[in-house]
Amino acid sequence: MRNKNSSVHRWNNMDYDILVKIFMSLNVMDLISVVSQVCSSWRSACCDPILWKKLDLCIQISDSCIYAPLQSDAWSYSVSNNNRLMNILKTTSNLSQGNVTCLIFNFFEYVEDEHLVYAAKRNRNLKRLALPIWSRLTVSGMRKAFKYWKGLESLTLPDFKSPIKLMKAIGTNCKNFSELKLTCNLNVDYANAIVKCLPKLKVLSLRATIVFNKETLICILDGLKHLEVLNICHCEFVFRDSTFSTTLCQELDKTIIEKGSRLREFLACQTNSCTICKSLKHYEFEKVRREDEVISLAL
Q1: Element (H, E) at 260
Q2: C-alpha distances in angstroms, 63 versus 28, 67, 69, 88, 228?
Q3: Residues 6 or more apart from 258 whose CB is under 8 A from it?
C-alpha cells in the first residue's frame, strides 16, 4: 500500500460513486455507527442523498424490545432508551441532510413527542411515515409534527387514543395526503372521522385488522368519493344486530361486494378458505405492518 509504484489503492481513496454503491447494501446502523466514522471521504459518501430516501429504523432494537409482549403495559421504559433513540435521530439527520422521504420507526420502539417533532423539523420533505405499535405520542405532539410535514402523503398508523383528533390534524396540515394503512380495529366512529377529515383519500388498507359492523365498510365505500383502492384481506368482521348479539362473519355482505367492485382495486379474501388467514396471527403486529397486498404500503 505504501509503495508509490503499486497499483493498489487505499480504501479512503476509493471512487465516491463506488463507495456509495457499496454503502447502499448496508443498513442504517452500519452507516451511522461504523462506516461514517472511518474517514472524511467515507463520511462524505455516507451523506449522499440516495442513501437516505428511506430511513428504516427497524434494525434498531432497544433493550426493552427483544421480546414482544401482547399488551403495552408489559413494556419497560428507561431514560437510556429514550436518549439512544434521540441520538440515532440526530446522527441520521446530520448525515441525511433533510433528504429522507420515508421514515419507518422500529415497530417495538417507544416513540415520544420529542422524537417525532425532532424528526419532523429535520426531515421536512417526508412523504411516507410508519409509526410503532405503542408510543407515548400525544395529539399535541402529532399536530406539531404534521405542521412540518405539509407534503406527507402516506401513513401507517397503529392504535391511537384519539383517532378522530388525529385524522383532523392530518387533514388540516397534509393537503396531499392520499394513503392510509391502519393496524388497529376500525368502528363506525373511526370510519366517519376518516371520511370527514380525509375526503381525498385514495388508498386505504385495513389488512388483518378487526372491522366492527357492516356500516363501517359502507361508510368508507360511500363516503370516500376519491377512494381507488381498499384492502380488507385477512380481516375479521364482527357484526352486531339490533339485539346487540355479536357475530363473527366469514363472508362479506353482497352490498359491500357490490360497492367495492366499483373501485379500481378491491382486495378481499374468503376467510374460511384463505391459507394466510388460517396461518396469520393477529398479534403478529410487525408482520401485519410490513406486509401488504397494496405494494405502495408494504415496508
Answers
A1: helix 254-260
A2: 18, 9, 13, 15, 41
A3: none
| pTM: predicted TM-score of the whole model, two decimal places | 0.86
Of 105, 115, 116, the closest CA to residue 149 belongs to 116
CA distances from 60 to 67, 107, 158, 197 (A): 14, 10, 19, 34
Rounded to an integer, what distance in angstroms lies between the CA atom of residue 294 and that of residue 291?
A: 9
C-alpha torsion sign, points 137, 160, 167, 54: positive
Element (H, E) at 126: none
Phi/psi at 219 (5° precision): -60, -45
Q: What three-state secondary structure class fits 155?
A: strand
pLDDT digits (tens, 9 = 90+) for 150-205: 999 999 998 888 889 999 999 999 999 999 999 999 999 999 999 999 999 999 99
User: What is the residue type of 270?
Assistant: Q
What is the β-pairing status of strands 236-240 and 246-249?
antiparallel
